[in-house]
UniProtKB/TrEMBL annotation:
Name of this protein: Alpha-ketoglutarate-dependent dioxygenase alkB like protein
The keyword Metal-binding is annotated on this UniProt entry: yes
Keyword hit for DNA repair: yes
EC number of the protein: 1.14.11.-
GO BP annotations listed: DNA alkylation repair
Length: 197
């Protein structure tokens, strides 16, 4: 893990993106992945595209502070209460990113066929310009960013145990996506810690 002073913004303008590198050893990252596979209430997501509801192959889960519901993607999400491990990871991520979070969206990609399309996390239910910390566990996958106005692109290979942090105006000016990959045959879990209104 790098000291916070050494961390550089990876975006050229209009927002902030930081990578803290791998915050867990390979063994610890694998142990966390296995724990989350077992103990998270995974379910398939529903997304509406051009008015039609689709069930995603990717699985998701919402966790957060007790009794909270969140407006997200046009529906109300009831958050499960933090598991002991999620709470521990949240505390570690808060310390590294110097921010506090009250919710976590988890995504489970079974292999490289499963992906996430271009989007910004710019819902009104997210505190404006707040930090969204994103922890990767499992298979290495490519994370792409594209500036809305200029088309400027950036890409990062996200490793097992790597933590990144999106902040400031990034969600207003950049979209991001998790690319498909034919080469990836194993699973990946991603955790995004968020500050919801
Ligand atoms: O899996 C990833 O790295 C991306 C997840 C993401 O963009 C999101 O949950 O909003
Ligand atoms: Fe996102």
């Amino acid at each position: 893990m790098q000291a916070i002073e050494n961390i550089q913004n990876l975006l050229p303008f209009d927002g902030e993106l930081y990578s803290y590198g791998k915050i867990y050893s390979e063994a610890q990252a694998n142990a966390n992945l296995n724990n989350l596979l077992q103990n998270i209430a995974w379910e398939h997501d529903q997304v509406r595209i051009f008015g039609k509801t689709h069930i995603t192959a990717r699985k998701v889960a919402w966790y957060g502070d007790q009794g909270r519901t969140y407006q997200y993607s046009g529906s109300v999400k009831h958050a499960h209460i933090w598991t002991p491990l999620l709470w521990e990871i949240k505390s570690q991520v808060e310390e590294i990113c110097q921010a506090t979070y009250n919710a976590c969206l988890l995504n489970l990609y079974h292999d490289g066929n499963e992906s996430m399309g271009w989007h910004a996390d710019n819902e009104r239910s997210i505190v404006r310009h707040s930090s969204i910390a994103s922890l990767s566990l499992g298979s290495r996958r490519r994370f792409d960013l594209k500036h809305l106005a200029t088309g400027e692109k950036r890409s990062l290979d996200l490793e097992n145990g790597q933590l990144i942090n999106m902040k400031g105006a990034i969600q207003e000016h950049w979209k991001h996506a998790l690319a498909k990959s034919k080469k990836v045959t194993d699973l990946r879990i991603n955790l995004t810690f968020r500050c919801m209104i």
